[in-house]
Specification:
Layout: H1 9-16, H2 19-40, H3 48-70, E1 86-88, E2 91-99, H4 110-116, H5 124-127, E3 140-148, E4 161-167, E5 174-179, H6 180-183, H7 185-196, H8 210-214
Parallel strand pairs: 2-3
Antiparallel strand pairs: 1-2, 3-4, 4-5
Helix pairs in contact: 2-3
Length: about 220
C-alpha cells in the first residue's frame, strides 16, 4: 500500500500535536533550563557540570510535566528519575537533554528505547523499505530534545535549540527532526492552504432581456 499524499511524518505530527502544545513545551523547557542554571550557581567548579546536569533533569521535568498538563496531554506522574511521558492524539511524547556534539546518550534510557519501537510502522515513510507495507499507525513516538552547548562558558543557562525529533524503532537514527521554532510555521502554512481551498460561488452575469433591448 503506497502512502497517501498526507502520509508523512510532519503531517502526522501536525494532525495530532496542536501548535499550542508545541509552543508551550518549548517555553517550558527554556524556563526549566534557566531555573536549573540559577539553582546550581555557587557550586564548586568540580561539582558544577554534574550539579547543573542534575538540576536540568529535575527542573525541566517539572516544567515539561506542567506544559503537558496545561493542554491535557496526559502526563505521567513525576517520580524520581522516571521519564515523563505524555500523549496527544496518536503521538507519545517525552523529552531528553543532549549536547550539540551527540544525541547518543538518549539510548541509555530503556523507557525511551521501548517507546521508540512503535515507530517501526512509520519507517517506510522515510526508509522506503519494500518489505514493510505501510499502514496508518495507531502509535507514534516523538521527543522534544533540548540541545546544549556542552560547555559552561557557552550559553550554559539555555538550550541552543529545542527540536521535535522522531527516532527509528531502535533509536539509532532519526526519521525526522526539526527545531520547534521552525516546525510551528508549518501550522500557519497548513491554515493558509485550508483557507485558500474554500469554494467560491460562481457569479452569474445577468443576461439582457430581449424586450429591454427593443425599448
Amino acid at each position: 500500500m503506497s502512502p497517501s499524499p498526507k502520509d508523512s511524518i510532519p503531517d502526522l505530527l501536525l494532525r495530532n500535536v496542536p501548535r499550542e502544545l508545541m509552543m508551550s513545551v518549548e517555553d517550558a523547557l527554556r524556563v526549566g533550563a534557566q531555573r536549573a542554571f540559577f539553582a546550581s550557581e555557587g557550586m564548586d567548579s568540580g561539582h558544577l557540570p554534574s550539579a547543573l546536569g542534575q538540576q536540568r533533569h529535575f527542573h525541566m521535568n517539572e516544567t515539561f510535566h506542567r506544559a503537558l498538563a496545561m493542554v491535557d496531554a496526559k502526563p505521567t506522574a513525576i517520580r524520581g528519575n522516571r521519564v515523563i511521558t505524555g500523549r496527544s492524539g496518536i503521538v507519545n511524547l517525552a523529552r531528553f537533554n543532549s549536547n550539540i556534539k551527540s544525541w547518543n546518550n538518549s539510548r541509555r534510557s530503556l523507557t525511551r528505547r521501548q517507546m521508540s519501537l512503535v515507530n517501526q510502522a512509520i519507517e517506510p515513510l522515510v526508509l522506503g523499505d519494500l518489505f514493510d507495507e505501510y499502514r496508518s499507525p495507531s502509535d507514534v513516538t516523538a521527543f522534544f530534545v533540548a540541545t546544549f552547548s556542552g560547555s559552561l562558558r557557552d550559553q550554559p543557562e539555555m538550550p541552543l535549540s529545542i527540536q521535535i525529533a522522531v527516532p527509528d524503532r531502535m533509536m539509532q537514527g532519526w526519521l525526522f527532526k526539526e527545531p520547534v521554532q521552525l516546525f510551528v510555521q508549518r501550522y500557519e502554512k497548513e491554515a493558509d492552504q485550508f483557507d485558500g481551498a474554500k469554494p467560491r460561488l460562481k457569479v452569474q452575469k445577468k443576461t439582457q432581456d430581449p424586450d429591454d433591448s427593443a425599448s
